[in-house]
Design brief:
Mean pLDDT of chain A: 89
Shape of chain A: elongated
Shape of chain B: globular
Strand order of the largest sheet of chain B: 3-2-1-4-5-6-7
Radius of gyration of chain B: 29 Å
Strand order of the largest sheet of chain A: 17-16-15-14-18-19-20-21
CATH topology of the largest domain in chain B: Rossmann fold
Number of helices of chain B: 21
CATH superfamily of the largest domain in chain B: Glycogen Phosphorylase B
Low-confidence stretches of chain A: 1-20
Strand content of chain B: 5-15%
CATH class of the largest domain in chain B: Alpha Beta
Structural class of chain B: alpha/beta
CATH topology of the largest domain in chain A: Rossmann fold
Number of domains of chain A: 4
CATH class of the largest domain in chain A: Alpha Beta
Number of strands of chain B: 13
CATH architecture of the largest domain in chain B: 3-Layer(aba) Sandwich
Largest interface: A-B, 42 and 39 residues
Mean pLDDT of chain B: 87
Helix content of chain B: 55-70%
Oligomer: heterodimer
Largest sheet of chain B: 7 strands, parallel
Number of domains of chain B: 3
């Protein structure tokens, strides 16, 4: 036998949070009360005196045995601020990078159970010590391998931990039905009882069967057990124990009872019946009955057989045999009562802490030694910078292209500011007609670009690629997958794929985490795409989604159905001031205003032209309207359904012909010149995620008149733009507001955001928000 | 112990759990059996036995407090219909040979692997020849089995194809003579089956001894008058008379028949009960000329849905209850008709408005949809609208398609009681735009019982119960004006907690004082009175 204390002292694992004198600290990330009563003292008996216990657990009716225990905090010799971080973290989900940093600083050993996909991924990706997945056994049809696959979706998690991962089985042989990895990594840490003393005082005066069956009101598994019991033991008096979070209308179901009532039941009930024939799962209450001295009648072939029960008189091979024995007990067969009571004590022997301590010491020694070996043999591999791909999935120009470039810069700067430098690669479609090198000339040097083409993998190719990438359990759910063919490593060199927008025609091959940046869900409000289902799927398959307005956030949750835990709102980024200079005049000398638009349906062209007509013909408007933007010169020539007939509208109005000029897409400089000379900017769009153009206008001291929709209201608030609003569905109001702008130009200019206010929302200031969201996925 | 009878004869297609009348029946039975001094003999058709049992089981009604009577074997025609339905519902049945195949397959694979290994590694020409010969000898029976199976399958599918074509041709020639139409044949057969089943039920009911009087919760079954003991017939409503065009378009011959049976039931029976004064006066007295003294009004008690989702024993019961309800809600959402949309929907905290009812011409669903579309598209409200009706209902389907609302209006059909309670609990507001109901819509008490406010159409039955002007102002809207409904919904969402407090006060102070025990008591008193009258008459 290896003395566990000596071993640890001889090889202190100080690199990772050793506590004095050389014993590693342990995170026991469970809240099960009975298990804690046994395992925490056992860990202490093995020399682990510093144990962290989680202070929150999932709000879930199935966590009926959970409780929170602060008592171990006093033994921890870690700074109070660090303990506060640990106590505030959600260890059943993803506690976040900061909590992991604290955990890694102080702890080397971690016990966990898997309740969410987040926990499995988070522990594997972040914990640097040894992690023991505590396994207390499952029903026959289930296995931990299945659970792992269910939560990980086949993506590698614990495989990444190598020898630092352990499958900590509480009963010998649980690993036999598991997959190769769990079998190979199994370590036996037997579960026992905190006390195995047999209580005196059982009377059996209550002539009823005590059958423990919790959660009947909502758990179909227990409901079926209850129904089976009721059928098999019909006609016999019984009481049903176990907590019933949802009340069950049956006078025999006791539901929650105070401790003293429970103890009385254990003392007075004539017999406990235990139904389970599960070979790998056992409940706590049969042992409780034995400890209380109550006769236990149980079904054969279950775990009690393995614990020494095969020859016991309380064992029944069939329900009929169980019923017959119970009937005898209920009738007061003193001989059988004595036989069962005196013989069943043997069941407690394998649960005695003193019998189990040796196994715990021996096997934990193995765990810690292995951890030390791993730490010692770790070759110093030069860590390369994290590389983040930002992908433009389709050809984007205008606002979205600019947003992608801003995002790339924000991620790069955010990483730099946090002292965690990262490489950012901006990927665009390899179409010479779509982009020229000039499009990328304004990117900072820290951001590089790559051209790519989408390649489509059928499910077999996808499976193979995932297998080669180490995700051996991954199974394709869809027929085809998208991969980014950049002509290099298909983005295998990048640690995170950020896709700007959700316009993905197929699911992406999940070789790396995918972060979507979604600006709007226009399809909820208009019929804009034939890819609605694919777009929704892209949102739901992404590891995380970023949005920039509350309105889009609402649509992401309500329409796209994204899990709120996978959604973050970051502040909207806008282009910097550049070399814009603010006009000092009141604008009275301006002869025109600008309408920036394109050919999309939601740009509200028809109502806008009607409003312009009213502005000139009814309000005698003096300012001409210059229409700019990609495709804007085509508005009155286009055959698109939503633009059809606009040529006739313009041709039929002398005022429109005279005052409205369709300039098309202007160069950056030409646009800025137009903007600088304009009286105001007009934004009559129906709905979208807001427009940069009003910010740019503000930099030039040009006020804006905008449609009244949520994203523009949010922009107005974030940047304090002092926007004027109009009802974009009412041409009358639009015309009236145009007129009001013309008449009150000086006042509108005065209400514009100051340069200082705009600077507060600069990319440099907002970059940390982006980096915080991105780094959680790295 | 007194023994009463309950008579129901719903169509085979009706799943009582999803019908308002089913929920009413379960509440009634639950309260009645809880008294402990009454036993109920439920007389129902053979095809409803399972449905009634499930309903009682889900409502936790003790088995010893009721018994099922009536024919227990279902008609062959019904069984044939069930068979057809099952065939169309189940995708592919497991082949009877699958079990054998499952066992044989691994053995065959292992043997093939063994052979492959030996053929690939043998160094002896003789051994190789032997293996090849062995393979060849194996391949003959294997090929025979495969070919045989294929032949059987092919001939089976050809026969089926031929039978189908012949059947269609025969049907076409029959139809061209204008002698029969498929729907009328089906309906006539059903009518015949129901008629015969009801007759058997009556025989069975009249054979029972000790039943003092019968109660029938709907006016769909004229033959109930043939029961020997007195019968109290409940007339929940006669909506067909109020929405003639809507229902005529909906059902044709079956609807005509339904109306005739209701009318016939009312004419043939003598004692009635309604849920509201409106139904008594406007329908029974004014339309059918029933003597007002023969009609008793017994209003509903609140339908408390809190039990299946109330959690106790946790540090934070409310949070646990919410988490449980969210889990149930996701399950409910997955039942929506837009399967491709909801199958991966993963936000359990989705905000929504809720209306639990079937789709019928009287339910005014299109007004609700118009209001919702206005809120979503014009008022920036991000909520979903969850309805429990069946999405194939034509006008609803067309509206949703035309307005691109398939992803935001979810029709979740076939909810369990727990799922229904969870939907009510998590909704921001429950709404009932229904233009006609037999009594105060259950929406009100069902929603309030789990902590959600409700707004209701301003109709007579509602005004009978909600009398206080301030509460009416807060809770009711003009059901003929979709914009009024939209504005009321918007207001209710913004003032949710105030509205809830106001309504809850009324619920606690007025509505909750009446329980299902009172309802049952009043019914039993009415039944006892009928029995006593008969006794006196006999004496």
């Amino acid at each position: 036998m290896i003395d566990i204390d000596v071993t640890f002292k001889a090889h202190p694992i100080s690199a990772q949070g050793a506590s004095a004198p050389g014993m590693p600290r342990v995170m026991w990330l469970l809240n099960h009360s009975s298990a804690r009563r046994f395992e925490v003292p056992m860990l202490k008996a093995c020399g682990f005196n510093e144990i962290f216990l989680p202070k929150t657990h999932p709000v879930d009716p199935s966590f009926r045995s959970a409780s929170i225990d602060f008592s171990e905090d006093q033994n921890l010799t870690i700074p109070a601020t660090d303990l506060a971080v640990l106590n505030g973290a959600d260890w059943y989900g993803d506690p976040g990078r900061d909590a992991w940093a604290v955990a890694n600083r102080h702890f080397s050993l971690l016990f966990f159970i898997v309740h969410t996909a987040g926990a499995l991924g988070s522990i594997s990706a972040n914990f640097e010590g040894a992690a023991i997945w505590r396994a207390y056994g499952l029903e026959r049809t289930n296995s931990y391998a299945k659970i792992r696959k269910h939560f990980s979706g086949g993506i590698k998690t614990i495989e990444r931990m190598g020898d630092r991962f352990w499958f900590g089985e509480a009963y010998q042989g649980l690993h036999e039905v598991e997959d190769e990895l769990l079998r190979r990594r199994s370590v036996y840490l037997p579960l026992g009882l905190s006390s195995t003393d047999i209580a005196e005082g059982w009377t059996g005066s209550d002539r009823r069967i005590f059958f423990v069956c919790p959660d009947i009101g909502f758990n179909p598994y227990y409901r079926a057990i209850f129904e089976e019991f009721r059928r098999d033991f019909a006609g016999l008096p019984y009481a049903i124990g176990g907590s019933q979070p949802i009340a069950f209308a049956d006078p025999n179901v006791l539901g929650f009872v105070p401790k003293e009532v429970h103890e009385r039941n254990m003392r007075e009930m004539r017999v406990m019946y235990y139904h389970s024939r599960e070979p790998r799962h056992i409940h706590y209450h049969p042992f409780e009955a034995v400890r209380a001295g109550m006769p236990l009648v149980f079904m054969a072939d279950g775990m009690l057989d393995k614990l020494g029960g095969t020859g016991l008189p309380g064992r029944a091979r069939t329900v009929a045999e169980a019923r017959s024995k119970i009937q005898r007990l209920l009738q007061g067969d003193a001989r059988l009562i004595d036989e069962i009571r005196s013989s069943q004590r043997v069941l407690l022997d394998p649960m005695k802490p003193s019998s189990l301590e040796h196994t715990w010491r021996k096997n934990l020694t193995r765990v810690v030694e292995r951890l030390q070996v791993a730490a010692a043999s770790q070759i110093a591999v030069p860590t390369r910078k994290k590389r983040i791909a930002i992908i433009l999935p389709i050809v984007y120009r205008g606002g979205t292209l600019r947003a992608a470039k801003l995002l790339a810069e924000a991620v790069s700067r955010g990483a730099e500011q946090a002292g965690e430098s990262a490489e950012v690669v901006l990927l665009h479609l390899d179409l010479a007609s779509a982009y020229t090198p000039k499009d990328w000339s304004d990117l900072p040097p820290s951001v590089t670009t790559r051209a790519f083409n989408w390649s489509i993998l059928d499910k077999h190719e996808a499976k193979t690629a995932m297998l080669f990438d180490g995700h051996s359990d991954w199974q394709p759910l869809y027929e085809k997958y998208l991969a980014v063919d950049d002509g290099i490593r298909q983005l295998g060199d990048c640690d995170l794929w950020i896709v700007v927008s959700d316009r993905l025609s197929l699911p992406m091959l999940p070789m790396r985490p995918v972060l979507l940046v979604v600006f709007d869900y226009l399809q909820r409000h208009y019929r804009v795409s034939h890819l609605d289902e694919q777009i929704l799927l892209a949102n739901r398959l992404a590891n995380h989604v970023l949005v920039t307005t509350d309105f889009t956030r609402q649509d992401a949750l309500q329409y796209a159905g994204v899990d709120p835990r996978r959604l973050t709102k970051v502040p909207m980024l806008v282009p910097g001031k550049g070399n814009a200079t603010r006009q000092q005049k009141d604008g009275g000398e301006a002869k025109h205003f600008i309408w920036t638009t394109n050919l999309a349906a939601h740009k509200n062209h028809r109502r806008a032209l009607t409003a312009l007509q009213l502005y000139y013909e009814v309000y005698q408007g003096k300012l001409s309207c210059h229409v700019t933007g990609f495709g804007s010169s085509e508005i009155i020539k286009s055959q698109l359904p939503h633009l059809e007939g606009l040529n006739r509208v313009v041709a039929g109005s002398r005022a429109l012909r005279q005052h409205v000029r369709f300039l098309g897409e202007l160069s950056e400089n030409a646009y800025r010149k137009e903007l600088g000379a304009s009286a105001f900017l007009w934004h009559p769009t129906e709905l979208d995620n807001g427009t940069f153009s009003v910010i740019e206008a503000a930099h030039y001291g040009v006020p804006s008149l905008s449609s009244d929709y949520p994203a523009m209201r949010e922009m107005d608030r974030q940047f304090q733009l002092g926007l004027s609003f109009m009802d974009q569905e009412d041409p009358e109001d639009m015309a009236a507001q145009l007129n009001a702008m013309e008449l009150n130009l000086a006042e509108r200019r005065r209400s514009l955001a100051t340069e200082e206010q705009l600077n507060e929302q600069s990319l440099v200031r907002l970059a940390p928000h982006y980096w915080r969201a991105v780094r959680e996925l790295l | 112990m007194k023994k009463y009878g309950i008579f129901i004869a719903y169509a085979p297609t009706i799943d009582l759990r999803t019908e308002g009348l089913g929920r009413y029946l379960s509440s009634f039975l639950k309260a009645a059996t809880a008294r402990g001094d009454a036993h109920f003999a439920i007389l129902c058709p053979s095809w409803s036995r399972g449905s009634v049992l499930t309903l009682c089981r889900e409502a936790d009604i003790p088995g010893e407090t009721y018994s099922l009577i009536g024919p227990d074997r279902t008609p062959l025609l019904y069984r044939f219909y069930q068979l057809l339905r099952r065939r169309s519902e189940t995708e592919k049945r497991r082949s009877p040979f699958q079990g054998i195949w499952d066992k044989l397959y691994p053995v065959a694979v292992a043997h093939a692997e063994w052979l492959k290994g030996h053929i690939a590694s043998t160094r002896s020409f003789t051994a190789l020849t032997a293996f090849i010969l062995y393979c060849a000898s194996l391949s003959i029976p294997v090929a025979a089995v495969i070919l045989g199976t294929r032949c059987v399958r092919r001939s089976r599918s050809l026969t089926r194809h031929w039978l189908r074509r012949t059947g269609r041709a025969l049907w076409r020639s029959g139809s061209s003579l204008n002698l029969v139409s498929l729907s009328s044949v089906r309906f006539r057969l059903y009518e015949g089956m129901l008629e015969r089943e009801t007759a058997l039920m009556i025989q069975s009911g009249n054979r029972q001894s000790g039943i003092s009087a019968w109660y029938t919760p709907a006016a769909f079954w004229p033959r109930v008058a043939e029961l020997k003991e007195p019968v109290l017939t409940c007339v929940p409503d006669v909506v067909l008379a109020e929405f003639p065009v809507g229902f005529a378009r909906l059902g044709g011959l079956p609807m005509q028949h339904a109306y005739q049976t209701v009318a016939s039931t009312i004419r043939r029976n003598k004692n009635f009960v309604t849920y509201s004064d409106h139904i008594k006066r406007k329908i029974l007295v004014e339309i059918f000329g029933v003597d007002p003294n023969a009609v008793q009004i017994i209003p509903h008690a609140p339908n408390d849905l809190s039990r299946p989702i109330s959690i106790t024993g946790f540090a934070d019961n409310e949070a646990t209850e919410r988490a449980y309800a969210e889990m149930l809600l996701l399950g409910a959402i997955r039942k929506a008709s837009n399967e491709r949309y909801v199958s991966t929907f993963s936000n359990p905290k989705v905000k929504f408005l809720f209306y639990a009812s079937q789709f019928r011409p009287s339910k005014n669903v299109i007004t609700l949809l118009r209001a919702y579309e206005w809120l979503l598209r014009k008022r920036g409200l991000g909520h979903k609208l969850i309805l429990t009706g069946f999405s194939h209902y034509e006008s609803v389907r067309i509206f949703l398609d035309q307005h691109n609302l398939r992803s935001d209006v979810l029709c979740v059909h076939g909810l369990t009681e727990s799922e229904l309670a969870a939907c009510y609990k998590l909704a921001d507001v429950a709404v009932s735009p229904s233009l006609s109901e037999g009594g105060m819509p259950f929406t009100f008490t069902e929603a309030l019982s789990v902590g959600t406010p409700a707004i209701l159409a301003d109709i007579d039955v509602t005004r009978e119960i909600i009398k206080e002007p301030a509460l009416r102002e807060a809770s009711l809207f003009d059901p003929y004006d979709w914009k009024a409904l939209g504005k009321k919904l918007e207001w209710a969402i913004q003032n949710r907690s105030t509205l809830y407090r106001q309504q809850r006060r009324f619920y606690d102070d007025v509505l909750a004082r009446r329980s299902w025990a009172n309802v049952v008591q009043e019914h039993l008193e009415a039944l006892d009175e009928l029995a006593a009258r008969k006794m006196v008459a006999v004496q």
